[in-house]
Fold this protein.
Amino acid sequence: MSYRVFTPQDYPLPYIIEDTTQWPIARLTTDSEAFTAAVQQAVLDKLIHRYHGKEGLKNELERVLYQERIRLTQTPWKADPKDERQFWNNIKSRIVKLDANAGQADAMTTEEDILREIVHRYVHEIVGQFNPAAFKFARGILPIFFGRVLNAAPGKWFKTLSANAKTIHEKIPITGDIEHIRSLARKGTVIVVPTHFSNMDSIMVGWVLNEIGLPAFTYGAGLNLFSIKLLSYFMSNLGAYKVDRRKKNGVYLETLKTYSREAIERGAHSIFFPGGTRSRSGSLEKRLKLGLLGTAVEAQKNNFKKFPDDLAPRVYVVPLIINYHFVLEAESLINDYLKETGKEKFIRENDDYSTSFAMVKFIFKFLSASSSLAMSFGTPMDVLGNSVDENGDSYNHLSQKISVRHYFMNHGELTDNQQREEEYTKMLGEKIVSQYFKHNVVLTSHLVCFCAFELIRKKYNYVDIFTLLRTPAEDIHINENDLIAAIGRVKDQLKEMNKNNEVLLSLELRFTDEKVIEHGMNNINLYHSRSPLLRSSDGYYYTEDLKLLYYYHNRLDGYKLEKYV
Amino acid sequence: MSEKRTIGVIGAGSFGSAIANLLAENNKVLLYERSESVREAILRDGKNRNHVMHGDIEVTGSLEEVASRCYLIFPVVPSQYFKSMIMEFSPWLRPDHILIHATKGFHCEFDIDTMKPEDLKLKQIKTMSELIREETCVVRVGCLAGPNLAAELAEHQPAATVIASRFDEVIHEGQHAMRSDRFQVYGNRDLLGIELAGVLKNYVALASGALSGLGYGENARALLITRGMGEMIYIGKALGADKRSFLGMAGIGDLIATCSSPKSRNYSVGYRVAKGEKLEEVLASMTEVAEGIRTLKIGKLIVDHTHANAPLLQIMNKVFFDGFDFDKAIKMLMRVHVAADAEYLDI
């Protein structure tokens, strides 16, 4: 590849803007009042336009009230503010009064007033802040913390000081055209769209963006995570805004989207997890949730409306693929997935991640694995999915230079058209998915689990996947030679695909087939109490948890590798 | 807007001329034709292929001019020439162009006479909108299809059509440009379905012409049209289209028109072959392309590859290319196992 490759010693790269108070996200906090006011006004304008007329607006208010009251009784959380009930009771009595006052020109409260109050509350609940002092603190302490645990496999504490200790950058390879991304972040707003497998993701994404010298990014974090004290401190001061997944009413969703759009228009680099929630099956996201992604498209259009072409700030989308050897929540995720596909619509909002202790324990294990993960940046794109060069100019698949403004024009004029933007967002989503597959780094553990599970599936091809997954694990054996042969064949095919730029391979895949198995197994078994794959003394392989094996196998789902096993 | 917009049309064939005339009722039209003699004839006579050309139609031989003067453009070029046209056009196009094509054919990335179904990749068979997306930077793409026999349009008879696109904007632009007191324009978001309906009906029209050539009447034709539509749904479904698209103006609507009218090119090819003329001779005698013959061959590849249920298509292939006897073919079709009536609505 023709771009500059950084070595582990180069990291962390210098910030592209040295003065943290000048970071876009810091300015968002400085201008917080104007920012939240702008969000609030934009939401009101949009909703009043959408539910034109008092009647439509009132119906919507009633819907919101109804859904919020259900939330209050059915899914109350400790983190909820104390005055929630009071607030919504008050809204209720004011909606009731609307009827009494109907037809009076001088009515005290209007539908608009009530809507304004609700939106105001939502905006202030969502808004995040960036505190340069807290950032400095985090920047100071995290490397020490990372460094401490990095080589801290039991009994090896002293190694942190020794010369052959691996640095975190040797353990976590960062790939992609970093210089390109840095130059785009100087010119416009960068939206990073990572894959989502674990709650660790937001930490790792924050870490990697800091390492490559970008100003802090803003992102929406699940409100439930704010109940973990350690996370909450960092998240609330480092620019995260709060997303309450329980609230699905139209007013809340519109507020959330407007918040995101307004932040992008104000230059705040943002992270979206376009998969919505963590991948339950363990496979790469194939269908994305487009809600927040759409705000990037809309923000770009608004920038064109506000500025002449060469001055309009551009929005760039950068996929990021995070690959773990093992995922903390793997067990509960795959169980959720199987329940979901088994049509039991029940997904827990809280999970094994609920204490600071569990998290620290995981980070510990995870950093002490010999190579825990890989972080791979995809090719930067504009909001239509065209690639962009280092100057920020767009080129389509035919290498024709493209004016992005033209996509939003009709008969020579910039026009608003929501359905058009929805289609553009879908197109962008398709491009992101194809980049996920292209820039996915195949780790030894994924390859080993893929081959092992496919061999089992072949052996039991007369039962469906659900029946298979219920088979007692002790009944299932894999012949060593079969596994080695399968690994060899799939590896060859992956190398072929790698040549055609269809996938990336981790360095360890250069090992012999036997070594690949050993490396993959060692890494994956490090964390789970019941191992996905083990070798018996008399030379066959078995599993202690077939579902886990299936979960890790799924990471290579979608590459059509099955026939090579 | 007081100033009339200029709409582009690419291709002054019979259907291209009809579309240009329809558009000229509401707009100025810039009609591209690559043949200089045809351009001169239009300028000289004010006529082209039995169409009296509207006074608001300008003729040009420059694709660049079409791209620079028009935002909304209707390519109406036979499928074999579509790719070379669009590649030539591509450097002038921008993302603020809207293209609505009216070409009822497939593009193939291979030789249709030597390709084997087992080697086929479905991606190698493309609709015109897919070709536009691949060869240009235009994303707002649509397709026009429906019961629109050029000769009847030329006589200003009442008619309707469908414009399909993923973008409502494209549908609205097309409706705005074409709608008139004698022409209705329906919208559909299933672009693939409408394109397939437009293409696949070609071989059913061939069969319909053949029925007439053999002297059969309307019962047989109704049987053909109904089951033909069912087959189109099976093939469409295998390629990812929505079955409802085949029940609308571009599906059953177009089928009824083309299967009933000797004015349809595909119909007349079927008719003449059934009357005993050689296929090669019939094709050689025609001034315009009958897409149905290509559709038969490509359709067979698709059906053999996807195992879609399409006995009519299979037997038509035997008749037209393997010298199979018409009477025998009809006997075989009549012996096909009959499913429940209208079962194609349940797939």
